[in-house]
Amino acid sequence: MQHAEDARQLRQQISTLLKEMELAVANGQWQRIRALDKRMVQLLNVCNTPELQGLQQQLQPIIARQYRQLLGKIDTAKSELESKMRQHVSDKEGLEAYQASVDGRLW
Questions:
Q1: Where are the domains of the chain?
Q2: In terms of domain of life, where is this protein from (predicted)?
Q3: Is the pLDDT of residue 23 over 90?
């Protein structure tokens, strides 16, 4: 029965890790996401041991669905950041043009 307990603990660790990843994405903690992803790979490698045969097959659809959702949120955050950066560049150019006109460089 030790294998069943190991599998239960591993499922719990993966579930907790997925929740931590979701929170890290929501908070824009990109380095933390990378570290959590590495930890996920380690846990999935444990699933490949003969004692836990089949566990990865059970968890794979759940993990894949969660990762797709996380990637969607990351893409949204990336798009928002790119938009803000474009606006920042535009604002900077406008401020520089205004400063040049105030300084009399355009007259």
A1: 2-79
A2: Bacteria
A3: yes
Its pTM surpasses 0.85: no
Task: Give the per-residue SS3 of the chain.
Answer: CHHHHHHHHHHHHHHHHHHHHHHHHHCCCHHHHHHHHHHHHHHHHHHCCHHHCCHHHHHHHHHHHHHHHHHHHHHHHHHHHHHHHHHHHHHHHHHHHHHHHHCCCCC
Burial of 29 (0-12, 13-18, 19+ CB in 10 A): middle
Tell me, what's the pLDDT at 105?
61
pLDDT digits (tens, 9 = 90+) for 49-91: 887 878 888 888 999 999 999 999 999 999 998 998 988 888 8
Torsion angle defined by CA atoms of residues 64, 65, 68 and 69, in that order, rounded to the nearest 10 degrees: -140
